[in-house]
Write a structure and sequence with these properties.
heterotrimer; A mainly beta; B alpha+beta; C alpha+beta; A: mainly beta; four-stranded antiparallel sheet; two-stranded antiparallel sheet; 6 strands; about 10% helix; about 35% strand; C: alpha+beta; six-stranded mixed sheet; five-stranded antiparallel sheet; 6 helices; globular
Chain lengths: ~100, ~1000, ~220
C-alpha cells in the first residue's frame, strides 16, 4: 500500500484513493492523420516496462480527481517524486535519457 | 491412550504466571482436562502430559509440542465448540486457555494416537519424494487434481466451518509517528523513549502480556526482578495519551511505504464466541512514520536423528514452560547445546525438582559461567558430544550420545544410550527478520553470530534487540531506548540527544563462545541415518535437502521449491536456516553463497474474518439504488446487477415466468405505454465555451451544429478506433451540455474526459461534473406516452410539430420542474422525464396515478434489451467488446471524418487492419426455426459439417424471443457480415444440435421509424 | 407554477441553462435516506450510545468550478456569499452557508435547499469568464457523525488520518469511505460532517450502523 503525495492536495494520501494510468509523458501526436500506422501503433500500444525508475501517470480518483505524474522505482517501489501535469521530473529515468 | 484428567501431573505447585485460583476446564480430542488462567493451550496440554498433538504431513509420524510461541510447527489445532465457531490452524502455543475451550488435533485420522495413515505412511513417502511439490507442476493437469486431493486430506491443517461464523470482525485504520513491533525488553524501551517525546506511538505484541522473554527471566533490571521493570514501563506507557498499546496483536505484514497490518485477537482468549456486540478480531491497518522492529529471535533446534519424536523440544521452550507456566514437560531431561544457553534449561529443570540426565555440550572445552554452575549443581556435562539420535515413537525413551569432532562434521566414537523422556536442543538464535523482508529487503548474514539480520531496506525502519543480533539484555534495553528516540526524532519529535536515553543497569553473565553447528552427524550417512527433520511441518529432512542439491538445485530458493521447505503455515521459522546450512554444506559453500531466503506476509496465519472485516454479507459491496427503488421492491421487481447498481430486471406478476413477464412488458410498450427507471444512466454536466468542441473531439460524430434544445446520439471510441461507450448528449445552452453514458461506463467516461482535458487539452475552457445521482430519469415509452404525459403537464407543448424527436424541453411534470427529452431506445414514441432526484419517487407515483387507463406497465432492463434489439440498437459492452469500430457495427452514419480536429478514434479506425473488407461485422440473425433462441456467445460457422477445429466467423452478442414479432431475434458478428445479407450461417451447440440462421438487417421492427415519428 | 417557471426561463442566460429544480408546495421530497425513516428511529430508537448520527436532508448543494486565477470568480463568490473561497483542504462558513475545497478548481457550496437556485443566479450574475456551477442537490446528502466514539467509526471507514494534528476543525478531505467515498469535514472536536452520494447512501447507512454497533448508535431527528 503506497503512500502518495498528491501535488494538488499537497499532502500524502493512501493508495486506495488513487489509480495508475500507465506510463507518463506520452503526448498525443499533434497531427494524427499524418502519422504512419507504425507511428500510431507506437503511440497507442507500446510502453516501457523498466526495472528501476519509471515515470507514471496516476489520478487522484477518490480525491481531487486530478491527474499527475509519479517517478517510481519499480523494483523497490520507492516514490522519488510526484509532479503536476505540464511540469518535468527532477529525477529522470535513465532509459528515457 | 487415557489420561488422568484431574491431575496435571506436570504442573508445579508454585511459580509461573498462572492464576491457580482460577481453574479452567478444556477439551482436547474429546477428553476433558484442567488448566489455569494464564495457560496457553500448549502449556495446559503439557501440564496434563499430552504428548502427541498431531501427525506429520507426509510420513504421518506422531508429533508433540516443540516450541512455546509463533514458531511452533506441530501443535496446530482445530478450535471450536460448535460447527459455526470452528477455527482451523491455531497454534496451541499462542492460544490462551479459556474455560470450555474445545480443541482437536487436525492431522490424525482417525486419531493422533492411533493413526491409520501411519500404516500407509510409507506410501505417502513414496508418492511424495523430495521435489514432489516442484515436479507436479510439470505433470498433466489431471494428475495434479489427484495429488491435490491427497495432499489436502493428508496435510489436513484443519477445516473450515460449513456454517456462517457468528462473530464480528473488523478493521481499523491507524496512523502513527512511531510503530514499535514487539514488546520484549528492546520494544518496551523503544516505546517508552519514543512515547516520552510526545510522538504518537503504537506498541504491538503477539502475546497477551508485554515483556517477551522477561516474563520468564531470572535477570534483574535496576536491581529488581525483570518482570517488575516490565510492569512499571507498561504502566507508564498506559498513562500516555499518545501511546496505543496492542497486546494479543501480531504484526503480520510490513508492507511498502511503512504500511503494517496487525491482527488483534480481542476475545479469542475469553470464550468460543465473542461476548455479544464485541469484535472478535480486528485488523489494524497502520501507516507509520518510522518503525522500530524489536521482534526478537527464535531459537534454532539442532537437526539429529528422530528429532521429531514427542519430547524433543527447544531448550528455550522448556525454560518458558517451567518459568512462565509452571509446567515441566517431562521427567528426565537431556539437553544438547552448542552454547551456554542450553545450561539454563537444565538449571530450570533441576530447580523444578525433576531429573537432569545430562547436558551434552557439542563444544570440546566449554568455559562460561554456566559450566561452572553446572558443576556446582552436580550436573553431568558431556563435552564434545552430541545427541545423534533419539529412541521412542510417541515419546522419547532415550538418547543416543556420541563424541563428535571439533568441526561437528563426524562422529568420532563413544556411542552410548542414555535413558530420558525429553531432549532439549539449543542450536543458537535466528533473529526474527521476517517483517524486515516483507517489502523486498534481503537479510544479511553475519558470521560473528552465524545468523541473518535485517538487511538494507528502503523502509523507514530501525531495528533493536535480538532481531539485530544483540542478545544480551543490557544491550537490548539500550538499543531499544536509542532507536525509540531516533525514530521519534526522525518523525519530527524531540532530538536525538542522549538525555532521553535511559540506560538500565543489568548484571551481565559472562558467556563462553558458541560453536557453529546445525546438522548433527550420525554414525551412518545422512541418507541412511534415522530421519533428521529440518522442517517439521512439511516433513523435509536433511537427506531430502541433500537429494535436492544432488539433483542440481543450487539456489536456496530452488531448494525450497524442490523440497517444500518453508512452505508450511509456519513458513519454516524453525527449519529454514538449518536447511540452508545443510544445503550450503552439501555444496561446499557458505550460507550467504547459497543465497538468502526472504519471508512474505503473513508472519503467522490470519483468519479470513480479519481480512474481510465488515466487508461481508450485506456490506460485501456497495449496492446502489435509484430514488424509486422502494417502489420497485414493493412491486415485485426482480433485480439485475449493473455495476454496483440494482436495476429492476423485470416485474413478474403472480404466476408468471420470466418469459411471460417479458412478453407482457414488451407488448404493453408497443401497444400502449411502459415506464423504465433509467436513473442509473451516467449523466455528466458539461459547461464552458469549448464544451461543444470538446464533444466533437471525444465523439465520433459531429457536434458543431447541434442547436440549443436538441439532443444527439454519440459513439465514443478509444485511440485504437474501438467503441467503448455511447449515449445521448443534449445541448442545454450554447456553453452547456448534459451527456449521458451507459450505466456501467459513467465513472470511466468522466475520467476519460478529465484525462484528455487535463493532460492533452488543458487550454480548453470546459468543466465536467457528475450529475448522475442528482437526476431521476423516468422513461415513458409507447404510443400512448404523449397522451399520458399530457395529463401531467400544462406548460410543455407535447405536440408532434412543437416537440420533435430528439428535442428536449423544460417545464413541469406533476408540478415538479423537469427536463423532458424526446428520445427513444425502444423505437416507440418516448419521453425521458428528468427531475431532481428528491422528487423522483413522487413523480413516478404520479405517473402511475394517471397511467392506469393506459395500462402503464413498469418494465425492467431485460424488456429494454428486447425492445432495443428489435430495433437493432446496440448496447455498448454487450454488442461491443473493445475490438469493434463504429463501421463494424454498421454505424458509419455516426462517423464524421470531415471534422477539422482528428477526433479520438479517427486515426485508429484508419489503420490497415481496421479498414479491411472482411472484418467481423454486426448483423441481424433470424433463425430458420422462429421459436429457437440462439444462446448468446454461440459461434457462427459457414459449414456445420466441417471437422473440428471449425472456422469460426463470429459470435452472437444479443439474442431474445420477441413476443411482438412472434419469432426469435439476434444480433451478432459475422465475418464480412454486411455483405452476406440473406446467407445462412450455422451455430453448433454443445449438445450437438445446430441452429440455422439467416443473416439480415439488425432492424427487425419498423425500419422506417414510423412508430416514433408520430 | 408554470407562470413562475416561464418567467424564470426567460431570464436564462444564453450560455448556461439554469432551472429552479424545486417545486412549490405540494410535491413530496424524499432525501436519499427517506426510506430509513430516521425520524422514527430518533423518536423511538436507542438512547444509549457514544455515536450520534443525523441526516441534514434536502439542502442545496452547488458544485463551483473555476480557477483561483479568475479574479471575477474569486471576488464574485466573496461578494455574493460574504466570505472567501477557502484554500486547499479547508472550509469556510457563515450562518447556514458553508463551502468546502474539493480540488484546486472545485468547491462544494451547501446552503438551505430553497436558496440554491437564487444563489446560483446571483453568482452567475457577478461571475464572468470561465467557470461552472452545477446544482447537485438531489444527488447527495449530508450526514453528521458526532460523539465520543465517532472518530473510531471513522477509523473503521476511511484510511485518512483523523488525528487532531492532521485533521483540525474546519479541514475537509474527499476520500474513500468504506467502499464508497465521502467529503469529510471536521466541524467540532467530536463532530464530523460527511457528504455522500445518493445512490451509496443506503449502503453507507448500513455501514455506519454496523461500524458503530459496539459503541451504541443514537439517531438524531
Amino acid at each position: 500500500m503506497f503512500s502518495i503525495y498528491c501535488p494538488y492536495c499537497e499532502e500524502h494520501r493512501e493508495e486506495e484513493e488513487f489509480h495508475a494510468k500507465g506510463q507518463a509523458h506520452i503526448p498525443r501526436p499533434l497531427d494524427p492523420d499524418n502519422c504512419s500506422d507504425k507511428e500510431w501503433g507506437e503511440y497507442v500500444y507500446f510502453r516501457d516496462n523498466p526495472r528501476g525508475l519509471h515515470h507514471e501517470l496516476w489520478v487522484h480518483g477518490t480525491g481531487c480527481r486530478k491527474f499527475f505524474n509519479i517517478t517510481r522505482d519499480t523494483q523497490s517501489y520507492e516514490i522519488k517524486e510526484t509532479y503536476k501535469i505540464g511540469t518535468q521530473p527532477r529525477i529522470t529515468a535513465i532509459h528515457n535519457q | 491412550m487415557h489420561h488422568n484428567s484431574m491431575t496435571q501431573q506436570n504442573r508445579l505447585q508454585t511459580g509461573g504466571r498462572i492464576n491457580r485460583s482460577r481453574p479452567l476446564s478444556f477439551k482436547y480430542n474429546g477428553t476433558s482436562y484442567p488448566g489455569f488462567e494464564g495457560d496457553t493451550l500448549a502449556s495446559a496440554l503439557l501440564a496434563n502430559g499430552v504428548d502427541v498433538v498431531g501427525r506429520s504431513f507426509k510420513y504421518s509420524r506422531p508429533r508433540g509440542i516443540i516450541a512455546a510461541g509463533a514458531d511452533e510447527p506441530n501443535a496446530v489445532l482445530q478450535l471450536g465448540a460448535t460447527e459455526a465457531t470452528q477455527v482451523p490452524n491455531v497454534r496451541a502455543t499462542q492460544q490462551e486457555l479459556f474455560d470450555g475451550l474445545v480443541s482437536t488435533s487436525t492431522n490424525g485420522w482417525p486419531s493422533t494416537d492411533n493413526d491409520m495413515m501411519s500404516y500407509i505412511g510409507k506410501v505417502g513417502g513414496r508418492m511424495m519424494p523430495p521435489g514432489f511439490y516442484y515436479k507436479t507442476f510439470m505433470y498433466p493437469q489431471s494428475l495434479w487434481d489427484t495429488y491435490e486431493k491427497f495432499i489436502r486430506k493428508a496435510a489436513g491443517l484443519g477445516r473450515s466451518p460449513v456454517e456462517n461464523d457468528p462473530d464480528i470482525y473488523d478493521q481499523l485504520n491507524q496512523h502513527t509517528d512511531v510503530m514499535v513491533v514487539g514488546a520484549g525488553p528492546a520494544g518496551l524501551s523503544a516505546a517508552l523513549s519514543a512515547g516520552r517525546t510526545g510522538a504518537r506511538v503504537i506498541l504491538a505484541d503477539e502475546q497477551a502480556e508485554f515483556g517477551g522473554m522477561l516474563l520468564h527471566s531470572d535477570e534483574k533490571i535496576n536491581g529488581k526482578p525483570a518482570a517488575e521493570w516490565v510492569a512499571s514501563v507498561t504502566k507508564e506507557l498506559r498513562a500516555m495519551d499518545n501511546v496505543m498499546l496492542l497486546p494479543r496483536s501480531t504484526v503480520n505484514g510490513y508492507h511498502d511505504h511503512n504500511f503494517l497490518t496487525i491482527h488483534e485477537r480481542r476475545t479469542d482468549h475469553l470464550a468460543d464466541l465473542a461476548p455479544k456486540g464485541q469484535v472478535r478480531q480486528r485488523m489494524h491497518r497502520v501507516r507509520a512514520g518510522w518503525v522500530v522492529l524489536a521482534t526478537g529471535a527464535i531459537e534454532r533446534p539442532l537437526v539429529y536423528g528422530n528429532n521429531d519424536v514427542p519430547g524433543c523440544m527447544l531448550a528455550s521452550a522448556v525454560s518458558t514452560y517451567i518459568k512462565r507456566y509452571a509446567v515441566v514437560p517431562g521427567n528426565e531431561l537431556v539437553v544438547m547445546t552448542t552454547s551456554d544457553r542450553g545450561y539454563k534449561s537444565a538449571f530450570d529443570w533441576q530447580d523444578a525438582g525433576r531429573k537432569v540426565v545430562a547436558i551434552v555440550d557439542t563444544r570440546a572445552e566449554p568455559s562460561g559461567a554456566c559450566v561452572v554452575e553446572a558443576q556446582k549443581r552436580g550436573l553431568k556435562v558431556i563435552k564434545g558430544s552430541a545427541v545423534i539420535e533419539v529412541k521412542g515413537s510417541k515419546r522419547v525413551s532415550g538418547a543416543v550420545i556420541a563424541s563428535i569432532d571439533a568441526s561437528g562434521n563426524k562422529v568420532t566414537g563413544n556411542v552410548r544410550r542414555l535413558s530420558c523422556d525429553t531432549v532439549a536442543s539449543a542450536g543458537g538464535w535466528s533473529p526474527a527478520v521476517h517483517l524486515s523482508c516483507h517489502a523486498g529487503s534481503r537479510p544479511d548474514w553475519r558470521d560473528d553470530i552465524q545468523a541473518f539480520v535485517p538487511g538494507k531496506t528502503v523502509q523507514k525502519q530501525l531495528t533493536a534487540g535480538a532481531v539485530n543480533g544483540s542478545y544480551s539484555l543490557v544491550v537490548c534495553l539500550e538499543e531499544g531506548a536509542r532507536r525509540g528516540v531516533l525514530a521519534a526524532a526522525n518523525a519530527g519529535f524531540g532530538d536525538q540527544s542522549d538525555e532521553l536515553v535511559e540506560v538500565a543497569l543489568v548484571d551481565e553473565v559472562k558467556e563462553g563462545p558458541t560453536m557453529t553447528l546445525f546438522h548433527i552427524p550420525h554414525t551412518k550417512s545422512t541418507s541412511r541415518a534415522p530421519k533428521q527433520f529440518v522442517d517439521y511441518q512439511t516433513d523435509v529432512t536433511a537427506a531430502g535437502i541433500e537429494v535436492a542439491t544432488r539433483e542440481g538445485y543450487e539456489s536456496i530458493e530452488h531448494v525450497k521449491r524442490y523440497t517444500a521447505m518453508g512452505f508450511g503455515t509456519d513458513q519454516g521459522k524453525l527449519g529454514n536456516i538449518n536447511g540452508m546450512a545443510i544445503a550450503a554444506k552439501s555444496m561446499n559453500k557458505t550460507i550467504p553463497e547459497t543465497g538468502t531466503t526472504i519471508f512474505r506476509p503473513n508472519y503467522t496465519p490470519i483468519t479470513f474474518g480479519a481480512i474481510a472485516g465488515r466487508n461481508c454479507g450485506e456490506l460485501f459491496d456497495p449496492k446502489r439504488y435509484s430514488a424509486m427503488h422502494r417502489w420497485h421492491l414493493e412491486n415485485g421487481a426482480k433485480f439485475e446487477d449493473v455495476g454496483q447498481w440494482k436495476r429492476p430486471w423485470y416485474f413478474p406478476q403472480p404466476g408468471e415466468s420470466m418469459q411471460d413477464s417479458l412478453n407482457r412488458e414488451c407488448k404493453a410498450v408497443r401497444d400502449s405505454a411502459g415506464i423504465l427507471d433509467a436513473s442509473t444512466l451516467g449523466k455528466i454536466d458539461i459547461q464552458g465555451k469549448d464544451a461543444r468542441e470538446f464533444l466533437g473531439r471525444v465523439y465520433s460524430n459531429a457536434w458543431a451544429k447541434l442547436g440549443v434544445g436538441k439532443c444527439r446520439y454519440g459513439l465514443m471510441c478509444g485511440e485504437d478506433g474501438m467503441v467503448f461507450d455511447d449515449g445521448v448528449t443534449a445541448c442545454l445552452a450554447d456553453n452547456h451540455f448534459v451527456m449521458t453514458t451507459t450505466t456501467g461506463g459513467a465513472a470511466r467516461v468522466l475520467e476519460w474526459l478529465e484525462l484528455y482535458h487535463q493532460t492533452e487539452w488543458p487550454e480548453m475552457e470546459v468543466y465536467f461534473n457528475t450529475v448522475t445521482d442528482h437526476w431521476s430519469t423516468l422513461t415513458i415509452s409507447g404510443p400512448n406516452s404523449r397522451k399520458l404525459l399530457a395529463e401531467l403537464t400544462d406548460d410543455i407543448d407535447l405536440s408532434k410539430d412543437s416537440f420533435k424527436f430528439m428535442d428536449w424541453k423544460a417545464g413541469t411534470v406533476a408540478g415538479v420542474p423537469a427536463r423532458v427529452f424526446r428520445i427513444s431506445f425502444t423505437g416507440e414514441l418516448s419521453f425521458e422525464v428528468n427531475v431532481q432526484a428528491n422528487y423522483g419517487m413522487y413523480v413516478w407515483e404520479k405517473v402511475f396515478e394517471v397511467g392506469a387507463k393506459y395500462n402503464l406497465t413498469p418494465y425492467g432492463t431485460e424488456t429494454m434489451h428486447v425492445l432495443r434489439a428489435e430495433k437493432g440498437f446496440i448496447i455498448a459492452g454487450q454488442d461491443t467488446d473493445g475490438s469493434v469500430t463504429p463501421i463494424d457495427l454498421g454505424m458509419s452514419w455516426c462517423v464524421a471524418n470531415k471534422k477539422p480536429f482528428s477526433y479520438i478514434g479517427k486515426r485508429g479506425m484508419a489503420r490497415e487492419d481496421c479498414v479491411k473488407e472482411n472484418r467481423k461485422q454486426l448483423v441481424g440473425l433470424k433463425t430458420k426455426n422462429p421459436q429457437l433462441v440462439i444462446p448468446e456467445g454461440s459461434q457462427a460457422v459457414a459449414d456445420p459439417k466441417q471437422p473440428i477445429p471449425m472456422t469460426m466467423l463470429g459470435h452472437v452478442t444479443s439474442s431474445y424471443y420477441s413476443a411482438c414479432l412472434n419469432h426469435s431475434i439476434a444480433m451478432g458478428f459475422v465475418r464480412g457480415g454486411l455483405s452476406r445479407m440473406g446467407e445462412t450461417v450455422y451455430y453448433p451447440q454443445p449438445d450437438g444440435s445446430v441452429i440455422e440462421a439467416e443473416v439480415c438487417s439488425p432492424i427487425f421492427l419498423d425500419p422506417e421509424g414510423a412508430r416514433q415519428n408520430v | 407554477m408554470s407562470e413562475l417557471l416561464m418567467a424564470e426561463q426567460e431570464i436564462q442566460t444564453p450560455l448556461h441553462a439554469q432551472m429552479n429544480q424545486l417545486p412549490g408546495e405540494g410535491p413530496r421530497a424524499e432525501s436519499p435516506l427517506y426510506h430509513a425513516d430516521l425520524t422514527s428511529i430518533a423518536n423511538h430508537g436507542p438512547v444509549d450510545g457514544s455515536v450520534h448520527l443525523q441526516e441534514l436532508a434536502l439542502l442545496g448543494h452547488l458544485v463551483l468550478r473555476g480557477s483561483p486565477q479568475n479574479e471575477s470568480f474569486v471576488t464574485g463568490f466573496a461578494q455574493v456569499m460574504g466570505f472567501a473561497l477557502p484554500g486547499p483542504m479547508q472550509s469556510a462558513e457563515t450562518g447556514d452557508a458553508s463551502v468546502r475545497w474539493i480540488a484546486p478548481d472545485e468547491w462544494l457550496l451547501i446552503v438551505p435547499g430553497s436558496e440554491a437556485f437564487s444563489l446560483e443566479k446571483r453568482l452567475r450574475e457577478v461571475i464572468s469568464g470561465h467557470y461552472s456551477i452545477a446544482n447537485v442537490s438531489g444527488g447527495q446528502t449530508v450526514l453528521v457523525l458526532a460523539g465520543r466514539d465517532a472518530v473510531n467509526v471513522l477509523k473503521k471507514s476511511t484510511g485518512y488520518d483523523l488525528h487532531d494534528s492532521n485533521f483540525p476543525v474546519g479541514k475537509v478531505v474527499t476520500t474513500t469511505f468504506a467502499k464508497a467515498s465521502a467529503v469529510i469535514r471536521r466541524i467540532g472536536p467530536q463532530k464530523w460532517e460527511l457528504v455522500v452520494r445518493r445512490s451509496f447512501s443506503d449502503y453507507l447507512w448500513l455501514w455506519l450502523q454496523d461500524a458503530s454497533a459496539e459503541y451504541g448508535l443514537i439517531v438524531r431527528g
